[in-house]
Design goal:
This protein has helices at about 15-30, 45-55, 70-85, 110-135, 155-175, 200-210, 210-220, 230-240, and strands at about 10, 30-35, 60-65, 90-95, 140-145, 180-190, 255. With about 260 residues, the chain is α/β, with parallel strands linked by helices. It has two domains: about 1-195 and about 230-260, 3-Layer(aba) Sandwich (Rossmann fold), CATH 3.40.50; about 195-230, no CATH class. It has a seven-stranded parallel sheet, sandwiched between helices. β5, α5 and β6 (about 180-190) form a beta-alpha-beta unit. It is globular. It is an enzyme of class 1 (oxidoreductase).
Length: about 260
């Protein structure tokens, strides 16, 4: 991975579980890390993030705030990066939101927001990053989709629609960029130990009346045969490999890391 010393990676949703793990993995290999999230952290929080990633080997660390539900804010973020002389060699489209609800009760605005952040933003970020990648003749795009980009679950209509879209978009962009030194892939995690699933764990705990650990086993084992939550670091390690030189011939794939969920 020594070649990453000269590369810059942009990770969206970098303050969350998987995003934070991916930033750390790339930092440890000497990449310049551009961490994005929608929140405007304090100067102290940014300094802490920068110090943590620099301490493990990042060549450089910067933070970008943008609401990915806004095309204008996405364009403004990439404009700032260009003004600062920061190319995006590796783009990790990780930011996501989720809500579980039957269609009849799903708030329309929230349904559209989930699709906007989980899918439409992937398009806009990819389109912007491809400018740098095509100019250099090298690039990696890694879309953190979901097992729900491959299969469906009840009460997740917006999330399933968006993540299926991400998988399809990944394959299409891989075809458009084939032969240009650019590889485009999706990772499809199953139940992963991140804050996004906390509401489902809490709801299951109330339902069964047991401990949080009991609720996790009860919830996860319904779909994921291994019965355990996936550590974000394991997803990050796959994202790191797909960003490397050895993955140059891997493109257009949707790789499950799901404890056997999609075996059947």
């Amino acid at each position: 991975m020594s070649h990453l010393n000269g590369k810059s990676v942009l990770v969206t949703g970098a303050l969350g579980g998987i995003g934070s793990a991916i930033c750390l993995a790339y930092a440890q290999q000497g990449a310049a890390v551009i961490a994005h999230d929608r929140v405007e952290p304090t100067d102290e929080a940014i300094a802490s993030l920068r110090d943590r990633l620099l301490s493990v080997g990042a060549r450089e660390v910067s933070y970008q705030q943008a609401d990915l539900g806004s095309r204008q804010e996405i364009h403004a973020m990439f404009s700032r990066l260009r003004e600062e002389g920061r190319d995006v060699d590796i783009l990790v489209n990780n930011a996501a939101i989720q809500k579980t609800s039957p269609i009849a009760d799903f708030p329309d605005d929230l349904w559209e927001s989930i699709v906007a952040i989980n899918l439409v933003a992937v398009y806009h970020c990819t389109k912007q990053a491809l400018v740098d990648m095509r100019r250099k003749g090298w690039g990696r795009i890694i879309n953190i989709a979901s097992v729900h980009g491959l299969v469906a679950s009840v009460d997740k209509s917006a999330y399933v629609a968006a993540k299926h879209g991400v998988v399809g978009f990944t394959r299409e962009v891989a075809l458009e960029t084939a032969g240009q030194g650019i590889a485009v892939n999706a990772i499809c995690p199953g139940w992963t130990d991140t804050p996004i699933i906390a509401p489902q764990i809490e709801a299951r705990q109330q339902q069964i009346g047991g401990s949080r650990e009991d609720a996790i086993r009860h919830l996860v084992s319904e779909k994921q045969p291994d019965g355990g939550l996936i550590p974000p670091a394991h997803v990050a390690e796959l994202a790191l490999y797909l960003g490397g030189e050895s993955a140059r011939h891997i493109t257009g794939t949707a790789m499950p890391i799901d404890g056997g969920w999609t075996c059947v």
